[in-house]
Write a structure and sequence with these properties.
Cupin domain protein; 8 strands; Bacilysin_H2HPP_isomerase; RmlC-like_jellyroll; Cupin_2; mainly beta; 103 residues
């Protein structure tokens, strides 16, 4: 159980920090409906994403990829990325170093 709050990040999307340390952070992003989006963005953190449940179409720079349960990938620092939910589900993201803006 985590003591971190659930935060809305957009329509039908929430995030919750699961654990953190100055050098790493684990965050759950929950998408409640088809079509919910994780807006295109970039950040200096290296990010790994694991699809716990659902299906998503990710934009990673100039590429698109569709992912589902059990898939994982790494997003390099400063690469513009985002996703569209194809089936409701949860993404588990790890960031290094931690995202202080999420605290």
């Amino acid at each position: 159980m985590t003591d971190f709050p659930v935060v809305s990040t957009g329509e039908n999307v929430t995030r919750q920090v699961l654990s953190d340390h100055p050098s790493m952070m684990v965050v759950a992003f929950r998408f409640a409906s088809k079509g919910a989006t994780g807006a295109l963005h970039n950040h200096p953190h290296v990010q790994s994403t694991y699809v716990e449940a659902g299906r998503f179409r990710f934009t990673l720079g100039d590429e698109e990829k569709e992912v589902g349960p059990g898939d994982s990938f790494v997003i390099p620092s400063d690469l513009t990325h985002g996703c569209v939910c194809l089936e409701p589900g949860t993404l588990i993201d790890c960031f290094t170093p931690r995202r202080d803006d999420f605290l």
